[in-house]
Write a structure and sequence with these properties.
The chain is mostly helical and 170 residues long. The protein is 72% helix and 7% strand.
C-alpha cells in the first residue's frame, strides 16, 4: 500500500514537472538536464530491489529496507550538506561517480548501527566476533554504494545488505 501511494505521488510529480514542489525536491540541480531520468531510475531500482528481497529473502526484508532507506539516504544527505572531501570512482572507464568521504562514512556508520541492532534482536546476544562480521558487512554495503552507477544503488544496496547479513553475520 505504501509503495502504491508513493508511486502515485512520483507519477504526479513527473506529470506536473517544474510546477510540482515534489518534482523540484526530487530533481537535483546536479542532474540537469536529465533530472527526470534520475527520478525514474532510482524509483525503478528501489521497486526492483524491494521485489527481489521480498521474493528471495522474505524473513530479512526489513533489513534491506532499513539499510537502503536510512543508511544510503543518510549518505546522500550528509555528503550533500557536509561533504568537504570528495573522491572520484571510475568503473571500467564507463562509469564515473563523485562521492564524499563524509557521505560514505555515514553509510558505513549507519549500516553498522542497523546491523548491530538487527543482530541483537535476532540472536539475543552480541560478541566480539559478531562485531567484526557486522563491520565487514557494513564495509561491503558501503563499497557497493560507492561502485554502483548513479541511480541503481537502491537495488544493489537492498540485495547486498541482506546477502551480506545472511553470508557473513548469520
Amino acid at each position: 500500500m505504501f509503495g502504491i501511494i508513493v508511486s502515485c505521488f512520483i507519477f504526479y510529480a513527473l506529470i506536473k514537472r517544474k510546477t510540482s514542489g515534489l518534482y523540484l525536491a526530487l530533481a537535483r540541480e546536479s542532474d540537469l538536464p536529465n533530472s527526470t531520468l534520475y527520478i525514474i531510475i532510482p524509483y525503478l531500482s528501489t521497486l526492483l530491489g524491494g521485489i527481489l528481497i521480498n521474493f528471495y529473502f522474505p524473513d530479512n526484508v526489513i533489513l534491506g529496507y532499513l539499510i537502503c532507506g536510512i543508511a544510503d539516504a543518510s549518505g546522500e544527505v550528509i555528503g550533500t550538506k557536509f561533504g568537504k572531501r570528495f573522491y572520484e570512482v571510475k568503473l571500467l572507464n564507463v562509469h564515473t561517480s563523485f562521492k564524499s568521504i563524509e557521505g560514505s562514512s555515514s553509510i558505513l556508520t549507519i549500516s553498522f548501527v542497523i546491523y548491530s541492532v538487527y543482530a541483537i534482536i535476532t540472536f539475543q546476544y552480541f560478541s566480539l566476533l559478531m562485531i567484526f562480521h557486522i563491520l565487514l558487512a557494513s564495509v561491503i554495503v558501503t563499497v557497493a554504494e560507492i561502485i554502483t552507477p548513479k541511480g541503481f544503488d537502491n537495488l544493489t544496496i537492498q540485495v547486498i545488505s541482506v546477502l551480506a547479513y545472511l553470508t557473513i553475520i548469520q
